[in-house]
Batch of 2 targets.
Target 1
Amino acid sequence: MKKIAIGMKFLCALLTASLIFTSGSVVEASGSEEVITLEAAVDSENNSLDSNTISEADFEYSNLINQEFDTLVAHWGGEYPIYYAGAFIADRQFTILVTCEPQDVQDEIWTITGNRDIIVAKASNSYNDLKNLQDQITELVTNLQSEGDRVANLVVGIGVDEIQNDVFVEVLNMDETVREEVETMLEAYSSVRLVAKDSPYEEMTNILSSMNGSLY
Protein backbone atom coordinates (compact mmCIF):
# COMPACT_ATOMS: atom_id res chain seq x y z
CA MET A 1 0.00 0.00 0.00
CA LYS A 2 1.24 3.47 -0.82
CA LYS A 3 0.15 5.07 2.43
CA ILE A 4 -0.65 2.54 5.11
CA ALA A 5 -1.75 5.12 7.67
CA ILE A 6 -4.55 6.26 5.41
CA GLY A 7 -5.30 2.60 4.86
CA MET A 8 -8.65 2.48 3.09
CA LYS A 9 -8.90 6.27 3.48
CA PHE A 10 -10.91 7.95 6.20
CA LEU A 11 -14.52 6.86 6.55
CA CYS A 12 -14.93 9.07 9.61
CA ALA A 13 -12.30 6.72 11.01
CA LEU A 14 -9.27 5.01 9.56
CA LEU A 15 -8.84 1.51 8.31
CA THR A 16 -5.16 1.48 9.01
CA ALA A 17 -3.65 -1.87 8.47
CA SER A 18 -2.63 -4.12 5.66
CA LEU A 19 -5.01 -6.95 4.85
CA ILE A 20 -3.37 -10.27 5.51
CA PHE A 21 -4.78 -13.74 5.47
CA THR A 22 -8.56 -13.17 5.48
CA SER A 23 -8.75 -10.10 7.65
CA GLY A 24 -10.08 -6.62 7.17
CA SER A 25 -8.44 -4.59 9.91
CA VAL A 26 -10.50 -1.90 11.56
CA VAL A 27 -9.68 0.95 13.93
CA GLU A 28 -12.28 1.43 16.64
CA ALA A 29 -12.54 4.10 19.32
CA SER A 30 -13.08 3.33 22.96
CA GLY A 31 -15.49 5.11 25.27
CA SER A 32 -18.33 7.18 23.91
CA GLU A 33 -16.64 8.45 20.76
CA GLU A 34 -18.62 7.76 17.62
CA VAL A 35 -16.27 6.30 15.03
CA ILE A 36 -17.67 5.01 11.78
CA THR A 37 -15.66 2.12 10.38
CA LEU A 38 -16.02 0.21 7.15
CA GLU A 39 -16.71 -2.98 9.07
CA ALA A 40 -19.66 -1.34 10.83
CA ALA A 41 -21.06 -0.32 7.46
CA VAL A 42 -20.99 -3.78 5.94
CA ASP A 43 -24.20 -5.75 5.69
CA SER A 44 -22.89 -9.30 6.00
CA GLU A 45 -26.08 -10.80 4.60
CA ASN A 46 -25.96 -9.14 1.18
CA ASN A 47 -22.28 -8.14 1.12
CA SER A 48 -23.08 -4.49 0.49
CA LEU A 49 -22.31 -1.17 2.14
CA ASP A 50 -25.07 0.15 4.38
CA SER A 51 -25.74 3.70 3.20
CA ASN A 52 -27.61 4.43 6.41
CA THR A 53 -24.44 3.80 8.42
CA ILE A 54 -22.06 5.95 6.39
CA SER A 55 -23.95 9.05 5.28
CA GLU A 56 -23.20 11.33 2.36
CA ALA A 57 -22.17 14.02 4.83
CA ASP A 58 -19.72 11.59 6.45
CA PHE A 59 -18.17 10.84 3.08
CA GLU A 60 -17.94 14.53 2.22
CA TYR A 61 -16.19 15.27 5.51
CA SER A 62 -13.90 12.28 5.03
CA ASN A 63 -12.99 13.44 1.52
CA LEU A 64 -12.12 16.87 2.87
CA ILE A 65 -9.89 15.37 5.55
CA ASN A 66 -8.24 13.12 2.97
CA GLN A 67 -7.38 16.13 0.84
CA GLU A 68 -5.89 17.94 3.83
CA PHE A 69 -3.93 14.88 4.87
CA ASP A 70 -2.64 14.28 1.34
CA THR A 71 -1.41 17.89 1.29
CA LEU A 72 0.38 17.30 4.59
CA VAL A 73 2.01 14.08 3.38
CA ALA A 74 3.15 15.85 0.20
CA HIS A 75 4.70 18.55 2.41
CA TRP A 76 6.52 15.77 4.26
CA GLY A 77 7.98 14.59 0.95
CA GLY A 78 5.65 11.62 0.58
CA GLU A 79 6.93 9.88 3.71
CA TYR A 80 5.87 10.02 7.33
CA PRO A 81 8.29 11.88 9.63
CA ILE A 82 9.76 9.99 12.56
CA TYR A 83 7.44 11.79 14.98
CA TYR A 84 4.20 10.87 13.16
CA ALA A 85 2.24 8.34 15.23
CA GLY A 86 -1.07 7.99 13.37
CA ALA A 87 -4.35 9.75 12.66
CA PHE A 88 -8.07 9.15 13.02
CA ILE A 89 -11.48 10.82 13.01
CA ALA A 90 -13.91 10.55 15.93
CA ASP A 91 -17.12 12.54 16.26
CA ARG A 92 -16.10 14.42 13.10
CA GLN A 93 -12.94 15.59 14.82
CA PHE A 94 -9.65 14.89 13.04
CA THR A 95 -6.73 13.98 15.30
CA ILE A 96 -3.09 13.56 14.33
CA LEU A 97 -0.83 11.77 16.82
CA VAL A 98 2.84 12.62 17.27
CA THR A 99 5.61 11.31 19.50
CA CYS A 100 7.16 14.76 20.01
CA GLU A 101 5.58 17.60 21.94
CA PRO A 102 2.42 18.60 20.02
CA GLN A 103 3.15 22.31 20.27
CA ASP A 104 6.40 21.75 18.37
CA VAL A 105 4.59 20.72 15.17
CA GLN A 106 0.96 21.79 15.43
CA ASP A 107 1.45 25.22 13.83
CA GLU A 108 3.13 23.59 10.84
CA ILE A 109 0.32 21.04 10.52
CA TRP A 110 -2.36 23.73 10.80
CA THR A 111 -0.64 25.94 8.24
CA ILE A 112 -0.07 23.23 5.65
CA THR A 113 -3.58 21.76 5.93
CA GLY A 114 -5.32 25.10 6.40
CA ASN A 115 -7.27 23.53 9.25
CA ARG A 116 -6.65 24.86 12.75
CA ASP A 117 -9.37 22.56 14.14
CA ILE A 118 -7.09 19.53 13.82
CA ILE A 119 -6.16 18.13 17.22
CA VAL A 120 -2.46 17.30 17.57
CA ALA A 121 -1.94 14.90 20.46
CA LYS A 122 0.99 12.97 21.88
CA ALA A 123 1.39 9.19 21.60
CA SER A 124 4.11 6.75 22.61
CA ASN A 125 4.88 4.86 19.39
CA SER A 126 5.65 6.28 15.97
CA TYR A 127 3.63 4.94 13.07
CA ASN A 128 6.77 3.76 11.30
CA ASP A 129 7.77 1.74 14.37
CA LEU A 130 4.31 0.19 14.60
CA LYS A 131 4.30 -0.64 10.90
CA ASN A 132 7.71 -2.27 11.22
CA LEU A 133 6.40 -4.27 14.16
CA GLN A 134 3.38 -5.32 12.13
CA ASP A 135 5.67 -6.47 9.31
CA GLN A 136 7.88 -8.46 11.69
CA ILE A 137 4.91 -10.24 13.26
CA THR A 138 3.39 -10.87 9.85
CA GLU A 139 6.61 -12.48 8.66
CA LEU A 140 6.84 -14.64 11.78
CA VAL A 141 3.23 -15.80 11.59
CA THR A 142 3.38 -16.42 7.84
CA ASN A 143 6.50 -18.56 8.22
CA LEU A 144 4.97 -20.55 11.07
CA GLN A 145 1.75 -21.04 9.11
CA SER A 146 3.73 -22.40 6.16
CA GLU A 147 5.12 -24.99 8.57
CA GLY A 148 1.62 -25.95 9.70
CA ASP A 149 1.94 -24.41 13.15
CA ARG A 150 -1.40 -24.85 14.97
CA VAL A 151 -1.21 -21.64 16.99
CA ALA A 152 -0.08 -19.49 14.05
CA ASN A 153 -2.96 -20.83 11.97
CA LEU A 154 -5.39 -19.27 14.47
CA VAL A 155 -4.14 -15.79 13.56
CA VAL A 156 -6.44 -14.20 10.96
CA GLY A 157 -5.34 -10.58 11.03
CA ILE A 158 -2.51 -8.27 12.04
CA GLY A 159 -2.75 -4.50 11.89
CA VAL A 160 -1.81 -1.11 13.27
CA ASP A 161 -4.46 0.52 15.46
CA GLU A 162 -3.80 4.23 15.25
CA ILE A 163 -6.27 5.14 17.97
CA GLN A 164 -4.80 2.81 20.56
CA ASN A 165 -1.30 3.31 19.14
CA ASP A 166 -0.42 -0.35 19.07
CA VAL A 167 -0.38 -3.44 16.87
CA PHE A 168 -3.30 -5.83 17.19
CA VAL A 169 -3.32 -9.51 16.37
CA GLU A 170 -6.70 -11.10 15.67
CA VAL A 171 -7.03 -14.68 16.85
CA LEU A 172 -9.79 -17.19 16.14
CA ASN A 173 -11.56 -18.95 19.02
CA MET A 174 -9.30 -17.40 21.65
CA ASP A 175 -9.85 -18.87 25.08
CA GLU A 176 -7.36 -18.42 27.91
CA THR A 177 -5.22 -21.35 26.76
CA VAL A 178 -5.00 -20.06 23.22
CA ARG A 179 -4.24 -16.56 24.50
CA GLU A 180 -1.29 -17.88 26.49
CA GLU A 181 -0.03 -19.84 23.46
CA VAL A 182 -0.20 -16.79 21.19
CA GLU A 183 1.45 -14.62 23.82
CA THR A 184 4.29 -17.15 24.02
CA MET A 185 4.61 -17.09 20.22
CA LEU A 186 4.85 -13.29 20.29
CA GLU A 187 6.83 -12.89 23.52
CA ALA A 188 9.68 -11.10 21.72
CA TYR A 189 7.42 -8.20 20.74
CA SER A 190 5.96 -5.32 22.75
CA SER A 191 3.02 -2.99 22.03
CA VAL A 192 0.96 -5.97 20.85
CA ARG A 193 -2.70 -6.47 21.73
CA LEU A 194 -4.62 -9.69 21.10
CA VAL A 195 -8.17 -9.49 19.78
CA ALA A 196 -10.58 -12.44 19.78
CA LYS A 197 -12.39 -13.18 16.51
CA ASP A 198 -15.24 -15.63 16.01
CA SER A 199 -14.67 -16.01 12.27
CA PRO A 200 -12.42 -14.68 9.47
CA TYR A 201 -13.38 -11.60 7.48
CA GLU A 202 -14.31 -13.43 4.30
CA GLU A 203 -17.00 -10.95 3.31
CA MET A 204 -14.82 -7.96 4.24
CA THR A 205 -11.93 -9.22 2.13
CA ASN A 206 -14.12 -9.43 -0.98
CA ILE A 207 -15.51 -5.93 -0.45
CA LEU A 208 -12.17 -4.31 0.29
CA SER A 209 -10.58 -5.96 -2.75
CA SER A 210 -13.27 -4.53 -5.00
CA MET A 211 -12.93 -1.04 -3.44
CA ASN A 212 -9.14 -0.69 -3.63
CA GLY A 213 -9.19 1.31 -6.84
CA SER A 214 -11.64 3.92 -5.60
CA LEU A 215 -10.38 4.41 -2.06
CA TYR A 216 -6.64 4.87 -2.68
Target 2
Amino acid sequence: MPQSNFTSHNWESFLNSLSSIISKATPDYPSTRCWSRKSLATIVQKIKRERKLPSTFPNTPEILTHLKNIGWAYKLDVDPLSNKTPPSKDFYLLDITAAHEIKIDPLELMQAYKPKGIICYMSALTYHSLTSQLPTQHHIAVLVKPTKTYESPKTIRKENKKTFTDKKSSLGDLVFNFQNQPCYLTRRSQSRLVGYQTRITGPRTRLRLTTIEQCLLDTLHKPICCGGVPVVLEAWQEGLPRIDEELLTSYLLQINYPLYFRRLGALFELLDYTPGGDLEKTIALGLESFDQNDPNASIALLPGFNFPTLNKKWQVLTP
Protein backbone atom coordinates (compact mmCIF):
# COMPACT_ATOMS: atom_id res chain seq x y z
CA MET A 1 0.00 0.00 0.00
CA PRO A 2 1.52 3.37 -1.02
CA GLN A 3 2.67 5.47 1.93
CA SER A 4 0.66 8.39 0.51
CA ASN A 5 -2.51 6.66 1.65
CA PHE A 6 -1.35 7.26 5.22
CA THR A 7 -0.54 10.93 4.79
CA SER A 8 -3.66 12.03 2.96
CA HIS A 9 -6.60 14.05 4.22
CA ASN A 10 -8.64 10.82 4.36
CA TRP A 11 -6.11 9.21 6.71
CA GLU A 12 -6.20 12.28 8.97
CA SER A 13 -9.99 12.08 9.00
CA PHE A 14 -9.81 8.38 9.88
CA LEU A 15 -7.36 8.99 12.74
CA ASN A 16 -9.55 11.74 14.19
CA SER A 17 -12.49 9.35 14.35
CA LEU A 18 -10.39 6.53 15.77
CA SER A 19 -8.88 8.84 18.41
CA SER A 20 -12.36 9.93 19.48
CA ILE A 21 -13.55 6.31 19.86
CA ILE A 22 -10.56 5.12 21.88
CA SER A 23 -10.33 8.22 24.10
CA LYS A 24 -12.75 6.93 26.75
CA ALA A 25 -14.70 3.83 27.70
CA THR A 26 -18.39 3.61 26.84
CA PRO A 27 -21.12 0.98 27.39
CA ASP A 28 -20.58 -0.26 23.83
CA TYR A 29 -16.79 -0.26 24.14
CA PRO A 30 -15.97 -0.89 27.82
CA SER A 31 -12.26 -1.28 27.09
CA THR A 32 -10.85 1.19 24.60
CA ARG A 33 -7.26 0.22 25.34
CA CYS A 34 -7.58 -3.49 24.50
CA TRP A 35 -9.23 -4.57 21.27
CA SER A 36 -9.75 -7.86 19.54
CA ARG A 37 -8.91 -7.80 15.86
CA LYS A 38 -12.56 -8.62 15.14
CA SER A 39 -13.76 -5.57 17.08
CA LEU A 40 -11.18 -3.36 15.41
CA ALA A 41 -12.34 -4.52 11.98
CA THR A 42 -15.89 -3.53 12.94
CA ILE A 43 -14.70 -0.09 14.04
CA VAL A 44 -12.72 0.41 10.85
CA GLN A 45 -15.75 -0.36 8.70
CA LYS A 46 -17.92 1.94 10.82
CA ILE A 47 -15.50 4.84 10.40
CA LYS A 48 -15.21 4.22 6.66
CA ARG A 49 -18.99 4.40 6.29
CA GLU A 50 -19.42 7.47 8.47
CA ARG A 51 -16.54 9.35 6.85
CA LYS A 52 -17.50 8.10 3.37
CA LEU A 53 -13.93 7.07 2.68
CA PRO A 54 -13.12 5.76 -0.82
CA SER A 55 -12.81 2.06 -1.63
CA THR A 56 -9.08 2.57 -2.16
CA PHE A 57 -8.63 3.42 1.52
CA PRO A 58 -6.43 0.86 3.37
CA ASN A 59 -8.11 -2.23 4.79
CA THR A 60 -7.92 -3.43 8.42
CA PRO A 61 -4.67 -5.47 8.12
CA GLU A 62 -2.92 -2.56 6.38
CA ILE A 63 -4.20 -0.09 8.98
CA LEU A 64 -3.04 -2.31 11.84
CA THR A 65 0.40 -2.69 10.31
CA HIS A 66 0.74 1.08 9.97
CA LEU A 67 -0.55 1.74 13.51
CA LYS A 68 2.09 -0.67 14.83
CA ASN A 69 4.77 1.04 12.76
CA ILE A 70 3.93 4.48 14.16
CA GLY A 71 3.66 3.22 17.76
CA TRP A 72 -0.11 3.46 18.16
CA ALA A 73 -0.78 -0.28 18.37
CA TYR A 74 0.95 -3.22 20.01
CA LYS A 75 0.01 -6.85 19.57
CA LEU A 76 -0.65 -8.49 22.94
CA ASP A 77 0.97 -11.78 23.84
CA VAL A 78 -2.11 -14.00 23.97
CA ASP A 79 -1.47 -17.73 23.67
CA PRO A 80 -3.49 -19.22 20.81
CA LEU A 81 -5.27 -22.53 21.30
CA SER A 82 -3.53 -23.96 18.26
CA ASN A 83 -1.52 -23.01 15.20
CA LYS A 84 -4.82 -22.80 13.34
CA THR A 85 -6.22 -20.00 15.52
CA PRO A 86 -7.56 -17.34 13.09
CA PRO A 87 -6.15 -13.78 13.12
CA SER A 88 -9.55 -12.54 14.34
CA LYS A 89 -8.55 -13.90 17.79
CA ASP A 90 -5.52 -11.57 17.95
CA PHE A 91 -5.59 -8.75 20.52
CA TYR A 92 -4.06 -5.29 20.37
CA LEU A 93 -3.29 -2.50 22.80
CA LEU A 94 -4.14 0.89 21.30
CA ASP A 95 -2.30 3.61 23.16
CA ILE A 96 -0.21 6.43 21.77
CA THR A 97 2.07 6.42 24.83
CA ALA A 98 2.00 2.66 25.46
CA ALA A 99 5.23 0.86 26.22
CA HIS A 100 5.87 -2.67 25.09
CA GLU A 101 6.18 -3.86 28.69
CA ILE A 102 2.88 -2.38 29.82
CA LYS A 103 0.85 -4.75 32.02
CA ILE A 104 -2.64 -5.73 30.97
CA ASP A 105 -5.17 -7.06 33.45
CA PRO A 106 -6.69 -10.35 32.21
CA LEU A 107 -10.11 -9.01 33.17
CA GLU A 108 -9.70 -6.07 30.79
CA LEU A 109 -8.73 -8.47 28.02
CA MET A 110 -11.76 -10.66 28.73
CA GLN A 111 -14.01 -7.59 28.60
CA ALA A 112 -12.43 -6.60 25.28
CA TYR A 113 -13.17 -10.09 23.97
CA LYS A 114 -16.88 -9.84 24.88
CA PRO A 115 -17.82 -6.16 25.38
CA LYS A 116 -21.39 -7.11 26.41
CA GLY A 117 -20.21 -9.99 28.59
CA ILE A 118 -20.21 -10.23 32.38
CA ILE A 119 -17.06 -11.25 34.27
CA CYS A 120 -17.95 -13.89 36.84
CA TYR A 121 -16.95 -16.91 38.94
CA MET A 122 -13.35 -16.91 40.23
CA SER A 123 -12.46 -13.78 38.26
CA ALA A 124 -15.12 -11.79 40.11
CA LEU A 125 -14.33 -13.42 43.48
CA THR A 126 -10.73 -12.27 43.09
CA TYR A 127 -11.75 -8.77 41.98
CA HIS A 128 -13.95 -8.38 45.08
CA SER A 129 -11.14 -9.72 47.33
CA LEU A 130 -13.33 -12.59 48.49
CA THR A 131 -10.42 -15.03 48.24
CA SER A 132 -6.73 -14.88 48.99
CA GLN A 133 -6.07 -17.45 46.26
CA LEU A 134 -4.58 -16.28 42.99
CA PRO A 135 -6.95 -16.94 40.07
CA THR A 136 -6.30 -20.16 38.20
CA GLN A 137 -8.80 -19.35 35.43
CA HIS A 138 -11.01 -16.55 34.15
CA HIS A 139 -14.62 -16.51 32.99
CA ILE A 140 -16.84 -14.12 31.10
CA ALA A 141 -20.51 -14.90 30.57
CA VAL A 142 -23.01 -14.08 27.87
CA LEU A 143 -26.64 -14.14 28.93
CA VAL A 144 -29.12 -16.48 27.26
CA LYS A 145 -32.83 -17.04 27.74
CA PRO A 146 -33.76 -19.66 30.33
CA THR A 147 -34.59 -23.03 28.83
CA LYS A 148 -35.92 -25.03 31.78
CA THR A 149 -37.43 -24.88 35.24
CA TYR A 150 -35.01 -25.46 38.06
CA GLU A 151 -36.94 -27.19 40.80
CA SER A 152 -38.40 -30.64 40.43
CA PRO A 153 -37.64 -34.10 41.85
CA LYS A 154 -35.95 -34.89 38.53
CA THR A 155 -33.74 -31.80 38.87
CA ILE A 156 -32.63 -32.86 42.35
CA ARG A 157 -31.81 -36.40 41.26
CA LYS A 158 -29.85 -35.11 38.27
CA GLU A 159 -27.88 -32.67 40.42
CA ASN A 160 -27.09 -35.35 43.00
CA LYS A 161 -25.51 -37.45 40.27
CA LYS A 162 -23.28 -34.63 39.00
CA THR A 163 -19.56 -35.21 38.95
CA PHE A 164 -16.75 -33.21 37.48
CA THR A 165 -14.94 -35.97 35.63
CA ASP A 166 -15.40 -33.97 32.45
CA LYS A 167 -13.73 -30.81 33.69
CA LYS A 168 -13.48 -29.22 30.24
CA SER A 169 -17.24 -29.23 29.65
CA SER A 170 -17.97 -28.01 33.19
CA LEU A 171 -15.76 -24.93 32.84
CA GLY A 172 -17.12 -23.60 29.53
CA ASP A 173 -15.49 -22.89 26.18
CA LEU A 174 -11.76 -22.23 26.35
CA VAL A 175 -11.20 -19.23 24.08
CA PHE A 176 -7.54 -18.38 24.75
CA ASN A 177 -4.79 -18.40 27.37
CA PHE A 178 -3.28 -15.23 28.80
CA GLN A 179 -0.41 -15.02 31.29
CA ASN A 180 -0.55 -18.82 31.60
CA GLN A 181 -4.19 -18.68 32.71
CA PRO A 182 -7.04 -20.23 30.72
CA CYS A 183 -9.85 -17.85 29.78
CA TYR A 184 -13.33 -19.29 29.30
CA LEU A 185 -16.56 -18.15 27.70
CA THR A 186 -19.71 -19.43 29.36
CA ARG A 187 -23.39 -19.07 28.55
CA ARG A 188 -25.59 -18.31 31.53
CA SER A 189 -29.33 -18.08 31.98
CA GLN A 190 -30.82 -14.63 32.46
CA SER A 191 -32.92 -16.05 35.26
CA ARG A 192 -29.87 -17.33 37.17
CA LEU A 193 -27.54 -14.33 36.77
CA VAL A 194 -29.44 -11.27 37.97
CA GLY A 195 -26.81 -9.25 39.86
CA TYR A 196 -24.06 -7.42 38.01
CA GLN A 197 -22.54 -3.97 37.99
CA THR A 198 -20.15 -1.76 36.05
CA ARG A 199 -16.89 -0.73 37.69
CA ILE A 200 -14.75 2.06 36.25
CA THR A 201 -11.11 1.06 36.63
CA GLY A 202 -9.66 3.84 34.48
CA PRO A 203 -10.68 6.53 31.97
CA ARG A 204 -10.56 3.96 29.16
CA THR A 205 -11.63 0.83 31.01
CA ARG A 206 -14.92 -0.37 32.46
CA LEU A 207 -15.59 -3.86 33.76
CA ARG A 208 -19.01 -5.50 33.85
CA LEU A 209 -18.94 -8.08 36.61
CA THR A 210 -21.13 -9.88 39.10
CA THR A 211 -21.85 -8.23 42.45
CA ILE A 212 -20.55 -9.69 45.72
CA GLU A 213 -23.96 -11.21 46.43
CA GLN A 214 -24.23 -12.81 42.97
CA CYS A 215 -20.62 -14.04 43.25
CA LEU A 216 -21.47 -15.89 46.44
CA LEU A 217 -24.62 -17.44 45.00
CA ASP A 218 -22.60 -18.58 41.99
CA THR A 219 -20.32 -20.59 44.28
CA LEU A 220 -23.33 -22.71 45.25
CA HIS A 221 -24.07 -23.44 41.60
CA LYS A 222 -20.66 -23.75 39.90
CA PRO A 223 -18.07 -24.39 42.63
CA ILE A 224 -15.43 -25.71 40.23
CA CYS A 225 -15.60 -22.54 38.13
CA CYS A 226 -15.20 -20.59 41.38
CA GLY A 227 -12.00 -22.38 42.38
CA GLY A 228 -13.22 -25.39 44.36
CA VAL A 229 -14.23 -26.10 47.94
CA PRO A 230 -11.49 -24.16 49.83
CA VAL A 231 -12.06 -21.03 47.74
CA VAL A 232 -15.84 -21.26 48.13
CA LEU A 233 -15.72 -21.59 51.93
CA GLU A 234 -13.18 -18.77 52.20
CA ALA A 235 -15.31 -16.55 49.97
CA TRP A 236 -18.36 -16.99 52.21
CA GLN A 237 -16.33 -16.36 55.36
CA GLU A 238 -14.92 -13.18 53.82
CA GLY A 239 -18.16 -12.14 52.18
CA LEU A 240 -20.75 -12.58 54.93
CA PRO A 241 -19.68 -9.45 56.86
CA ARG A 242 -19.89 -7.47 53.61
CA ILE A 243 -23.11 -8.69 52.02
CA ASP A 244 -26.17 -6.54 51.53
CA GLU A 245 -28.86 -8.85 52.94
CA GLU A 246 -31.64 -6.89 51.25
CA LEU A 247 -29.95 -7.29 47.88
CA LEU A 248 -29.24 -10.98 48.47
CA THR A 249 -32.88 -11.54 49.42
CA SER A 250 -33.98 -9.76 46.25
CA TYR A 251 -31.73 -12.00 44.12
CA LEU A 252 -33.04 -15.14 45.80
CA LEU A 253 -36.65 -14.17 45.12
CA GLN A 254 -35.89 -13.27 41.50
CA ILE A 255 -34.00 -16.50 40.84
CA ASN A 256 -36.53 -18.55 42.83
CA TYR A 257 -34.35 -21.65 43.07
CA PRO A 258 -35.26 -23.57 46.27
CA LEU A 259 -32.00 -25.52 46.22
CA TYR A 260 -30.26 -22.19 46.89
CA PHE A 261 -32.51 -21.63 49.92
CA ARG A 262 -31.61 -25.04 51.36
CA ARG A 263 -27.90 -24.67 50.69
CA LEU A 264 -27.85 -21.23 52.27
CA GLY A 265 -29.72 -22.49 55.32
CA ALA A 266 -27.17 -25.26 55.83
CA LEU A 267 -24.22 -23.00 55.02
CA PHE A 268 -25.29 -20.32 57.50
CA GLU A 269 -25.52 -22.96 60.21
CA LEU A 270 -22.13 -24.34 59.22
CA LEU A 271 -20.57 -20.87 59.48
CA ASP A 272 -22.59 -19.90 62.57
CA TYR A 273 -24.18 -16.96 60.79
CA THR A 274 -27.61 -15.62 61.76
CA PRO A 275 -29.39 -13.87 58.87
CA GLY A 276 -31.75 -10.96 59.34
CA GLY A 277 -35.54 -11.24 59.31
CA ASP A 278 -36.36 -10.97 55.60
CA LEU A 279 -33.42 -13.12 54.50
CA GLU A 280 -34.23 -15.70 57.16
CA LYS A 281 -37.88 -15.85 56.03
CA THR A 282 -36.87 -16.22 52.39
CA ILE A 283 -34.44 -19.04 53.11
CA ALA A 284 -37.10 -20.79 55.20
CA LEU A 285 -39.14 -21.23 52.01
CA GLY A 286 -36.67 -23.94 51.13
CA LEU A 287 -38.03 -26.12 53.93
CA GLU A 288 -41.34 -26.32 52.05
CA SER A 289 -39.70 -27.51 48.84
CA PHE A 290 -38.94 -31.11 49.79
CA ASP A 291 -40.30 -34.07 51.72
CA GLN A 292 -38.29 -34.82 54.83
CA ASN A 293 -39.23 -38.49 54.47
CA ASP A 294 -37.99 -38.76 50.88
CA PRO A 295 -34.72 -40.77 50.90
CA ASN A 296 -33.68 -39.02 47.67
CA ALA A 297 -34.23 -35.50 48.99
CA SER A 298 -30.70 -34.87 50.24
CA ILE A 299 -28.40 -32.66 48.17
CA ALA A 300 -24.75 -31.65 48.47
CA LEU A 301 -23.84 -28.19 49.72
CA LEU A 302 -21.79 -27.82 46.54
CA PRO A 303 -22.93 -29.70 43.41
CA GLY A 304 -20.65 -32.52 42.42
CA PHE A 305 -18.92 -32.95 45.78
CA ASN A 306 -19.52 -35.69 48.33
CA PHE A 307 -19.55 -34.43 51.90
CA PRO A 308 -19.78 -36.60 55.05
CA THR A 309 -22.17 -34.72 57.31
CA LEU A 310 -25.93 -34.51 56.76
CA ASN A 311 -27.76 -31.44 58.00
CA LYS A 312 -31.10 -33.13 58.71
CA LYS A 313 -33.11 -29.92 58.87
CA TRP A 314 -32.15 -28.85 55.34
CA GLN A 315 -31.25 -32.31 54.03
CA VAL A 316 -27.92 -30.95 52.82
CA LEU A 317 -24.58 -32.78 52.96
CA THR A 318 -21.85 -30.49 54.32
CA PRO A 319 -18.08 -30.68 54.99
